[in-house]
Specification:
Chain lengths: 843, 173
């Protein structure tokens, strides 16, 4: 199909026809909004979904990675001679076999598939060995001799700031600082001068990990035609494709096929190209055999890319009524050993503060530090979770200082809909007030808060509120290009089958099903009767991946466009055959018929035949590129999104005032998702977010064991197992009252926005605020463990400030800020003191 | 050649006999997945921590990663592949599909096998009994609530009732 095909003139304009706009009435929709099963539901409940580790091929061999036992060291010698002699060993790779560095972001290509000269955390891979059995590969790994020359270990944000040497990487800003950002919007000094009340607080958010139930696995096969196929548990097949093409050069990119298997949970943890994927590919090229690797749970902890530990300082100025006049926010991120998405993570700790509440003047400073820990990256809520905790707890403190109702104070501060924020983010639909009202009414907030009621077992009840916003997909791709973010192809068969091809990856969130619901609605067919072919770089058009909650909006819009184009072709064929004007045709119940005389019509399959007879083979495409952002300053690329979801929550806690042990019996959560494409699936996303948020709030942490042994520092992950890394079980999951708020957004398919990342964010601060409501102490640190609550209670009893948390940030020189006039100061989205970039760089 | 390092055994799996030769230290999980290609049973830790590998041995849920395959010889092994009888889904599978209790679907086989044994033991389990019964199965997607509701729905259907899921379960409050 070509775009200038005259028979597609209307649809090719790329505009959704009026019928499918965001403000379409619910009663006019047949598929959208119902609670039908997901297209893959039957196979998932039957154990028939084929995850990467469920695959095997004839003559397949098994690969294992030997990982570093040192946190930071130079590799002096690697001797694999004994390993080679182990019976069954078929191939061995070391760093020199894969010399090209890679990384998810073009600005931080700092990883090697196998460390060539230096290891940067315990778990960094050094050697890959493949053998006939997994046991033989393990045995051989144990016989590899590696001599290390230990280097000073950098174990924390503070150590990274204080030690410029040794540098973990030889790139970055300076010392062990990976990134520095310093952005000022508006006039901070004036904002604070106009404030009636100013507060400063310091917070810490410990890192935690995704913990998907599926351990990463890959199967690579370099066939006799010289083509490589890799099946992998990845959320981003397109980015893995790019990384493989880079590292395996001169193997041409079009000889590489990446198939992302359905992911057994991702949550952001399978969004980077990984060492094991590249090694499996290379090993298959070396041995000529299919190579499989399945990571152990411990290795999944080493892959990590989870939540950054972040130290934060916030200075906020408000009016007497609690209106935010100025916010000075400062974050230091512990990035771990590699860049990963860290540049974006750093910006995200500053980007969305303005999208929830209107902030008149805003200053953000953020720095990401390298440390000798497993690399951090994107986890559900990517980079916005930690500052959201800080801001929502700080607002609670402000409300307490000013004796205001925290819920009402939030409502008074809401960012207006259809507005530009101080940092030039375009807000569209905005249903946060409705969300707040729902959880306030549902929880009995106005009457139950502050009562400090006792439970039968002597605990004290408290309620806490918090809100959040989140992206519906990043406005820019991770590498600069002018191509669509998402592409969809449709093939219409004479049988009436509609097959959809799309590069998006189902990680459990239901993206395969989202495609079917949208197309089925437009074409009037049964979504469960469609065929879905996704996440295969040979067969499917590019979709950038399942991250940043982008799929519903971006592939959804692409699917909508492809479906409308198909509908147009079918309508022309049917119109001729039925002698009914196109405008009068209705597509519904797998029929195409005259809306004024429903008996006059044909089956959907006959409509395909009529159109194919008239126009030839029917296939259409759709693509989507997000709207251009108004933020033109350096750093303005992180934060823009087609739309923002909103969430508000009230969490109830019951705290034992003697021990600090608390439980969460009930949560009220309202999530503005624009429009629920499938009610039950949206509910599942929201409940899952509440669950994961509670895990982070109460117990989950990537803690490190720091010991000294014979003069050497031993710095290892403390708890790399599912038993010791505590996550909530059925017994900890509270009752959740969920409110699905629908404020349709004009950029979303049928008005839909993201669902399922946003509601994680307010849980942690709401828990902290609820504990304060119950027992009057502040835990300014996540996770909010009973030990910390107890420590704060002890302080309070001793007559001191009842608080647990960090006191200060180590000093970092951020240099001069980029100064940007806000929209209400007449700013145009550029920095007035920014050095001009040449055209090439800007492009 | 006779391999003295391997055991040749016949297992009774989902009511059918299947013979297989395997290294004697293999777990039941490994034999099911790797030697018999019954990959419906999943693994999340191989240490008995996550419940993903749950199968039934003589009707009792067992972590197949902690059981040696040789210990399963002569026992009735039931896996997720044997849950549905014929082309129709088992009521539990239907309920999980209807309510979205399987998101990524990775923990689902283990949960189904645990829940099936629970309902066999207690046809009318309370919410508390379901929580207790499934406490050994981790799920990272759902927050468990849709799973609890699906088990309740399936149990009611299996008792011959004709329950309708609560509106707020599907559409919210």
């Amino acid at each position: 199909m070509v775009l200038d095909d005259p028979r597609l003139a209307d649809a090719a304009a790329g505009q959704a026809s009026a019928k499918w706009r965001h403000d379409v009435k619910k009663e006019d929709l047949r598929v959208i909004g119902t609670a039908i099963r997901k297209v893959d539901a039957r196979s998932k409940v039957s154990g028939l979904t084929r995850f990467a580790d469920d695959l095997s091929l004839p003559r397949m061999i098994y690969m294992k990675l030997l990982r570093s036992t040192q946190a930071h060291a130079r590799i002096k010698r690697v001797d694999v001679s004994k390993a080679k002699a182990v019976p069954g060993v078929k191939g061995i790779l070391t760093g020199e076999d894969l010399p090209t560095p890679f990384g998810i972001l073009p600005v931080s290509q700092d990883e090697h598939a196998l460390c060539p000269d230096k290891v940067r955390f315990v778990g960094d891979p050094v050697v890959a060995i493949a053998a006939l059995t997994e046991d033989a590969a393990w045995d051989a790994c144990r016989l590899v001799e590696v001599d290390y020359e230990p280097l000073h270990t950098i174990g924390s944000i503070k150590e990274a700031v204080e030690h410029e040497e040794p540098r973990i990487h030889d790139y970055g800003v300076r010392g062990n600082i990976h990134r520095l950002e310093n952005l000022e919007f508006g006039d901070l000094a004036a904002g604070f001068a106009a404030s009636d009340h100013i507060r400063e607080d310091t917070f810490f958010f410990e890192g935690n990990t995704h913990l998907p139930m599926e351990q990463h696995a890959s199967l690579a096969h370099f066939d006799k035609d010289g083509k490589l196929t890799i099946w992998s548990s990845t959320q981003t097949p397109h980015y893995l494709h790019k990384a493989l093409a880079r590292v395996l050069h001169p193997l041409p990119a079009h000889h590489i096929r990446v198939i992302a298997c359905p992911n057994g949970g991702g949550f952001g943890g399978k969004s980077d190209p990984f060492n094991h994927e590249i090694c499996a590919a290379k090993m298959s090229m070396l041995t000529g055999r299919p190579v499989k690797i399945s990571l152990t749970r411990e290795e999944v902890f080493f892959c990590h890319r989870g939540r950054h530990p972040v130290l934060m300082h916030a200075r906020i100025g408000v009016s007497k009524t609690g209106r935010i006049k100025a916010l000075d926010f400062h974050s230091l991120l512990d990035g771990g050993a590699y860049g990963s998405y860290g540049t974006a993570s750093t910006f995200y700790t500053g980007a969305l503060q303005t999208v929830t509440y209107a902030v008149e003047n805003y200053h953000f400073r953020g720095a990401r530090l390298f440390t000798n820990k497993a690399p951090c990256g994107p986890k559900r809520g990517h980079g916005t979770v930690q500052p959201r905790f800080a801001l929502e707890v700080q607002l609670d403190k402000i409300a307490c200082d000013l004796k205001l109702d925290p819920a009402q104070m939030r409502i008074d501060n809401l960012a207006p809909r259809d507005s530009l924020t101080a940092n030039f983010l375009q807000i569209g639909s905005m249903g946060l007030m409705q969300c707040i009202n729902k959880v306030v009414d549902g929880s009995g907030w106005k009457t139950r808060r502050g009562l400090q009621e006792r439970t039968a077992d002597g605990r004290i009840r408290g309620l806490g509120i918090a809100c959040s916003s989140y992206l519906s997909g990043a406005g820019l791709p991770i590498y600069w290009n002018g191509m669509p973010h998402s592409g969809v192809q449709l093939k219409l068969d004479r049988s009436g089958l509609v097959t959809v091809f799309c590069g998006s990856t189902d990680i459990g969130q239901g993206s395969d099903s989202v495609l079917t619901w949208i197309i089925a609605e437009v074409l009037g067919i049964d979504p469960l009767g469609m065929r879905v072919v996704t996440s295969d770089t040979d067969l499917t058009p590019v979709d950038l991946g399942s991250y940043s909650s982008r799929v519903t909006v971006m592939t959804g819009n692409a699917a909508m466009q492809a479906a409308e184009r198909a509908r147009e072709i079918l309508a022309k064929g049917a119109s001729e055959q039925l002698q009914v004007p196109v405008a009068r045709l209705t597509f519904a119940d797998a029929r195409v018929f005259d809306s004024e005389n429903p008996d006059k019509g044909m089956s959907f399959a006959d409509a395909v035949i009529a159109a194919e007879s008239r126009f030839g083979t029917i296939g259409t495409v759709g693509s989507y590129t997000p709207p251009k952002s108004a933020a033109k300053f350096r750093g303005g690329g992180v934060g823009p999104s087609p739309s923002y979801s909103y969430s508000a929550t009230v969490v109830e806690v019951e705290v034992d005032p003697e021990t600090g042990i608390y439980r969460v019996p009930k949560v009220w959560m309202a999530h503005d998702i624009g429009r629920a494409l499938n009610a039950a699936v949206a509910m599942g996303q929201i409940e899952g977010s509440v669950y994961m948020g509670l895990g982070e709030a109460m117990m989950e942490e990537m803690a490190y064991r720091d010991r000294s042994h014979k003069g050497h520092r031993i710095f290892v992950h403390k708890i790399p197992s599912l038993l010791e890394y505590k996550s909530p079980s059925t017994m900890e999951m509270p009752e959740v009252v969920t409110y699905v708020v629908e404020d349709p957004d004009k950029n979303g398919p049928f008005g839909a926005k993201e669902v399922g990342q946003g509601p994680l964010l307010p849980i942690m601060p709401a828990v902290a605020n609820a504990i304060f409501d119950a027992v009057g102490v502040r835990v300014d640190e996540v996770p909010i463990t009973p030990e910390k609550v107890f420590a704060a209670l002890v302080q309070k009893r001793a007559g001191k400030v009842g608080r647990y948390g960090p006191d200060e940030l180590p000093p970092v020189n951020f240099g001069d800020s980029l100064k940007i006039k806000t929209p209400w100061q007449g700013g145009d989205g550029t920095a007035w003191n920014e050095p001009k970039r040449d055209k090439k760089a800007a492009r | 050649m006779i391999d003295p390092g391997k055991v040749l055994a016949t297992f009774c799996i989902n009511g059918e006999e299947q013979a297989c030769a395997f290294v004697s230290h293999r777990t039941l999980l490994e034999v099911l997945r790797e030697d018999l290609q019954l990959t419906g049973t999943k693994h999340g830790c191989e240490l008995g921590e996550c419940g993903a590998c749950t199968v039934q041995i003589n009707g009792v849920p067992v972590l197949s990663c902690l059981m040696l395959a040789v210990d399963a010889i002569g026992q009735q092994i039931r896996t997720v592949e044997g849950l549905a009888d014929g082309p129709a889904l088992h009521p539990l599978q239907d309920a999980f599909a209807d309510l979205g209790a399987a998101q990524c679907g990775y923990c689902t086989p283990g949960l189904l096998m645990t829940a099936e044994a629970l309902i066999a033991r207690d046809p009318c389990p309370s919410r508390e009994a379901i929580k207790q019964g499934l406490a050994g199965n981790l799920c990272r997607c759902t927050g468990y609530l849709k799973i609890f509701e699906a088990v309740e729905l399936a149990a009611a259907r299996m008792r011959g009732e004709n329950p309708v899921p609560k509106r707020e379960t599907i559409y919210g409050s």
